[in-house]
Amino acid sequence: MFIDIADIFIKSGDGGDGAISFRREKYVSHGGPDGGDGGRGGDIIFVVDPSMTTLLNFKYKRKHEAGRGENGGKNKCYGKDAEDLIIPVPLGTVIKDKESGKIISDLSSVDDTYIVLKGGKGGKGNTKFATPTRQAPDFAEPGMPGEERHVTLELKLLADVGLLGFPNVGKSTLLSKVSKAQPKIANYHFTTLEPNLGVVAMPGINPFVIADIPGIIEGASEGVGLGIQFLRHIERTRLLLHIVDVSGIEGRNPVEDFIKINEELKKYKLDLTDRPQIVVMNKLDLLYDKSYLDEFRKEIEGLGYSEIYAISAATGEGVAEVMKACAEKLQTIPVIETIYDVEDFYIPEIKQFTYDVEIDEEGVFVVSGSFVDRLLNAVDIHNPSHLRYFHKVLGNKGVLDRLKEMGIEDGDFIRLNDFEFEYYA
What we know:
Layout: E1 5-11, E2 44-48, H1 57-60, E3 63-65, E4 85-89, E5 93-97, E6 103-107, E7 113-117, E8 148-155, E9 161-164, H2 171-178, E10 196-200, E11 208-212, H3 227-230, E12 239-245, H4 254-268, E13 277-282, H5 292-302, E14 308-310, H6 319-330, E15 356-359, E16 365-368, H7 370-378, H8 384-396, H9 399-405, E17 413-416, E18 419-422
Subunit structure: Monomer.
Domain Obg: 1-158
Protein name: GTPase Obg
């Protein structure tokens, strides 16, 4: 099954907690603190796996979490860092923030690797809180929480040549003739329900990758038929091989079909109409009036297309010549560099521990924010030594100065989450 879009949840690992520990040695009556720091949580890292061609794995596993760092230990032992979680994806995968739709990373090279979420930092052990006046701190710092995000994975196949055309014009038959790919082939529309890739390796030409895109019909750019699901795969092809059924057995006008397909490309993305195209008149074996080839060629040349070939994918007539033309054309076409606007990219918020101060309707000064959560997690408010450290941090971080600016007076109450106390300068 071919899956080219997947929504998943990712979370990096939490940092391990710092340890509260004191030396216990014979003949050392007052051993100092020796609690070690916690280990770092695991990162979430996406890497390109060239052997993958679909996002099918993510259909069954949608939640991906990295491990937590180990807690610190005694004797100043640091907790072990958690293993990073490596998530392999196919070449050409675009990672987007699901909420905003903005791009986090575009993995379009074989060796691409991207750290999407960093693991939480390990907390400091009580050794780090020792000072000349606080020689036996009995508190430590908790580990930093990991990050989490819902992301969308969008696969845009990377192929040199894209087979383009209405349903049932012979694209899959051509792919099966020139490569070892085995697409489903039958005489009805939309036989191909998913893109197929094949490698063209013929004597005398440089190998290249060719993609058979499901048939595009009029209105595909607005969601008609199957085309809109797969038009994105054409974006990165350097050359388009536009297949047209000139046999007339289905009662269609080949020139009108050619024009309609190019109109859909233009509606989907304007620059796709500038992509080099080789036009292929297919099903020669079913064409009764061969003089129509000259008529078709003349009309297509009038539209600005000069490279036009006649083939029968079914019998193989003319196929080698077209593949040779593709290989030669590719030598002159640079690799497609996808250009994004700055606004297209997701910019993560810088993780800062901040606080807000406001006065509620009862006149209580309420301090809130991530800084408060982290501070309260690190101390025991019922322990006098912890409270001394707590007040010192409030002073060092400017909270007390902010309260003074807001007019706090002795006897006023301060609330941090569920902890409320009276203020005295």
